[in-house]
Each structure stands twice: as structure tokens, then as C-alpha cells.
Amino acid sequence: MGREIVESIKKRFHELDPCTNSNYSKFKVVNTELTLSVSFKSKTLDGRVIYDLKNLADADKVIFDTSALDIKEAKVNGKAVKYELKPVTPIYGSPLHIPLDPSNKESKVEIIFKTTDKCTAIQFIEGDTGPYVFSQCEAIHARSLFPCFDTPAVKSPYKFIGISPAVVTMSGRPQKSDAPNTYVFDQPIPIPSYLVSITSGNLLKAPIGPRSDVYSEEPSLKKCQWEFEKDMENFIQIAEKIVFDYEWSRFDSLVLPSSFPYGGMEIPNMTQLTPTLISGDRTQVKVMAHELAHSWSGNLVTNSSWEHFWLNEGWTVYLERRIVGAIAAQEAQNEGRKDAEEYGEQVRNFNMINGWNELTDTCQTFDERYTKLVLNLENGDPDDSFSRIPYEKGFFFLFHLETKLGGIKEFDPFIKYYFNKFKYQSLNTAQFVDTLYDFYEPKGKKEVLDNIDWETWLFVSGLPEKPEFDLTLANQVYKLVDKWVNYIEKGGEIPGDETQHFEGEQHMLFLETLTAKFKTLKVDPATIKQFPKIYPKYGQSKNGEIISRWNELLITFGQYTSDDEIVTSFADWLGTVGRMKYVRPGYVLLKDGVSRDFAVEVFKKYEHTYHPICKTMVKKDLGLA
Ligand code: BES
Ligand code: ZN
């Protein structure tokens, strides 16, 4: 055993990214200039992209990914050329072939294009204060925004130019611009296509830290500022201590309209956030910590294909939990607690337990092919494989390594080494393992690595071995859950609301553990129907994390019908959020807990408000696709 493992791991996935039609491996992208001009009237973007390419393999053509793009013109070194837009392939779009002179080592390739109404990357909406457009390219939607090597294996520095009657933000640092309606951005750090982004709308900004502003439309700006201003700079400084200095200069963020399909998206210099985070109680700032952590994992150091997505998200959850734990320790210290560090670890463990529950749930319910850490995406759609697996199995793999290698103190130097070694690059899982050996072998820990069960962790579906958790904070919750279990099994006095002393996410753990337990018991719906009276605060919550869990509990076990208040108000709520994390399970809950017809009826009512990606996924979930 030993290093041979790296060679055998390499053979288990594709050498090149299977989710692109492009011939990216034959080129180096030296620089990219992307101009996008917004038309709110036609709901399209006019674009021009200019690539400075180094031809590494004497290729006689360059092939870019496109999807639903209207190609107008292509030039090589200033001369118009005869390009070919090939027929559309399943999932991956239409390859765009542009002839090159193979004897030229360097070429400037320019393409003029326009997006169409089939574009899956952008959504035009009526914002609160005017027309609004935003994009979302991860994982493989960048090809419907501009012709590109749409693979995370390719990185380029960019110059971005956005033209619009409304304010524009893109994935870089704003530059001075004198031309009217023209916004210029510079991204000197090489980034992959999925991090390219454009937003335009009536945006204002407010400071939330010395190197951070938050952007949103006017009506919610102050609330957004309040939500983040306490933590932002603190998060950055803590992350810098764990990894190394923040390299992107500013960390600004943008709170999007409600149809934004994700919780957050780590756009360089302009993290995008769902408005569901603005709950007025700072309970969801953890998402900001997550997106910030991507400044190292994902944005500096990137997975080389979506088969290795865990390298992006697993590492990010790992850093996020380290940040959250460190913040808790810091707060305990400020309160004069002697066990501050220990408390920080308790909080980190509490977050892990939540993650473990999500992992268990996903392994039980999700397509088995996609519960492996390293995925096989040949002919696959990354949107279909998307789940909590890369996040949580990725996290627990890293936590397993941390534990086996001797804990945080032994693992911390590796974090710095790894991120430094691969910054500005993309890597795969074999390179990750190889780097572990590089680092730990000289430290006499080769045997520890040899004893890791790589095969199971990386290539076998389902739950990995369960670690031991510090249960201090979870036990407070389990005690109350046990009271309920006892009541349901043996009767006696019905429990009251004993959750007053719970903090933050203990409420979430309480609701989801009750749901999990009730699945194994016979619960009388009449008992469930008393819950809204026992826990009125959950019914009144504005926090999506509570609303979704609370309604799952009630609707799964309460035998409510489609005209019960509980069901109608939950259905109404689904019409106000666009975050897939809530929308998708929400409709599945209506389908399984009420009826499929009702779920479809509600979906039809709100379909037009959802983002194209969200719409497609809910249709798949409801069997409408
Ligand atoms: N990069 C992801 C969002 C994403 C993943 C978009 C795949 C498209 C395809 C982002 O960093 C993320 O993980 N968001 C989470 C936040 C959570 C883990 C704190 C989300 O949206 O729920
Ligand atoms: Zn993430």
C-alpha cells in the first residue's frame, strides 16, 4: 500500500471533464474579455467575448460550449471566419467550432452573440423598484450566457463590461468608467466559467464591514445591512487565520429577489444571497460564512470537474464549521467563560450532528448512484446529481481525516499547505490524496493514511461510518424529544412547550428529530393537530429553516387536507420563496402529505415566479417533466 493508491484512484474517474463538449485541454486561456449588454425590453443580453488563447496541441479548431445562444459572428485575429454551430447534444448544448491556423501558437478569438428566451442562466423579473436581471451559472449554465470552455478545469483572468440602463454588478472589482450606462470590472485572479455572473437592477449599497458592502434594492437595504454588519469582518478575519489572507481585495455581497434559487452563490467580489436570510434575527449568517469560505475552497482552489464537486463543497462546509465554532468560542470568551474553546467545539459538533442527519436522510432517499463522494457524470446532468452528499459526505471525509491524523492541531498546517499549493488551479480527488501523502509522509504519518479506507469513502454509495459526536448541546434537545416519544408510546401527560431555553439551531434539531422519531412510531393525527397550540411560535416564524421543518412535521403526520389553514398557508408561503432548498421539498411534502393533484395545482399557480432551474427541478420532482 501507499502511493499506489493514488494511481488506482485516478483510474476510477474520467481524465477529462465529461460534462463539456469543448476541446479545452488543447488550450490555455491567457485572458478573457466579456461584454454583456442588457435589454430589459427584449429580455436578452447582447454579448461579445474575446479570448486570448495559447494553442498547446496544434489544434486546427477551437470548440466552445454553447446552449441556446444565437451566434452572430466569429473572428480570429481580427478576421471573420466560417464557424459551425453543431446540432444540440443531450444536456450539454451545441458545440461551436471555430477554425484555427495550427501554426499560430497564440490566437485572439472573438465571438458576437445574443442570448435567447431558452437561456437557463438568466432570469428577467420585475424587481421591487424596477426591471431586474440576474444570472446563475453553476454548474453548467454558463454556456447559455456566453460561448466558453464550460468546465471548472479552465480558469482565466477576466475583464468584464456590463452595459445597462440600471446598475450592473459582475464577478470582479469595479473600475472607473466614463461611458454612459457602462460598468467595468477587473478580475485579475483566474476564475472558471461557472463563477461568471451579471446582475442588473435598481441596486444600492450599504457598508457591512471595512472591506464589505451589501447591495440590494432600496426597500430592504437597511435590513440587509443590519443582518450582516455585526459578523462580516469578524468572519473574514477568522477565515484568514484558518487558511491565509483574503486575496480578492473586497468581499461584497448582493441580496437577490426571492426567485434566486439557492441560499447563496460564491460569485467572486459579489457573493449572491437569497432574501430568505434576512430574517431580522441574524440566525442565518452561517450561509454568509459558507460563501465566504468559498473564497478559498472553490474560488482559489477549484474542483477540476463536477465529478469532484465534494472538493468545492465538502471543504467549504469544513471551513464554514470551523468559522462557526471559532465565533462561538470567541463569544464565550467575551462572556468570560473559562471553557470557551471547549464550547466552540461543542457548537461545531452540534452543527455536525445536523449535517449527519441531512446525510442520513439523503442516503436513504436519493438516487444511489449519486450518494458516492466521487461521481460518475458521463452523460449526466450535474443539476440532477446535486444533493447534500458532496457537502456532508465531503465534510465527514475531511473530519475523518482530521480525526485520524491527530485532530485540529495536526490538520491545520495541512489546510494552509493544500490551499497554497493549489491556489489559482483546479484539481481532482487523486491529486488531493497525493497531496495528503506529500504532506504527512515526512511527518511519519504514512501508516495513518495507508489505513484510511479510500475505496469506501470515495467510491461506495451510502452512509460512511458514524463519528463520535460531542452531544452536550444536542442532548438538551433529545431530552424533550424523548418526552414526546414516551408520551406517544405510553400516554400520560402531554408535554408542553419546554423549548424556551433552546438557542438558534436547537429548534431545527428538535423539529427534525421529532419528525424522524415519529416516522418509526404510530402517531395519532389528533396529537399532531395540537402542536400549533403547544408551539405557537413555530407557526409564526419567518425563518425558512423553521417554516420548512415545522410544516414537514405537521403535514406528514397530521392528515391535514387541502383546505386546512396549515396547508393553505404553507402553500401560500411556497409562492413567496424561490430557494430550491425550500421549494423542492415543499412540493414533495404537498404531494406526499396532501395529494399530488393539490401539489400540481399549487405549482401551476406559482410556476411563473420561479427561476428556470427551479421550475425544471420541481417538474421532475412532481413527475411533470
Ligand atoms: N455553490 C453553492 C450553490 C450552488 C451549488 C449553485 C451547485 C449551483 C450548483 C453555494 O455555495 C452553496 O452551497 N449554497 C448553499 C448554502 C449553504 C450550504 C450554507 C445553498 O444554496 O443552500
Ligand atoms: Zn457552497
Automatic annotation (TrEMBL):
It catalyses: an epoxide + H2O = an ethanediol. Pfam families: Leuk-A4-hydro_C, Peptidase_M1, Peptidase_M1_N. The lineage of its organism: Eukaryota, Fungi, Dikarya, Ascomycota, Saccharomycotina. Its main location: cytoplasm. The keyword Zinc applies. Aminopeptidase that preferentially cleaves di- and tripeptides. Also has low epoxide hydrolase activity (in vitro). Can hydrolyze the epoxide leukotriene LTA(4) but it forms preferentially 5,6-dihydroxy-7,9,11,14-eicosatetraenoic acid rather than the cytokine leukotriene B(4) as the product compared to the homologous mammalian enzyme (in vitro). GO terms for biological process: proteolysis. Belongs to the peptidase M1 family. Residues 472-622 form the Peptidase M1 leukotriene A4 hydrolase/aminopeptidase C-terminal domain. CDD domains: M1_LTA4H. Binds 1 zinc ion per subunit. GO terms for cellular component: cytosol; nucleus. The active site is at E291, Y391. NCBIfam families: leuko_A4_hydro. It comes from the Eukaryota. This is Leukotriene A(4) hydrolase. It is an enzyme of class 3 (hydrolase). It is found in: Cytoplasm; Nucleus. GO terms for molecular function: aminopeptidase activity; epoxide hydrolase activity; metallopeptidase activity; zinc ion binding.
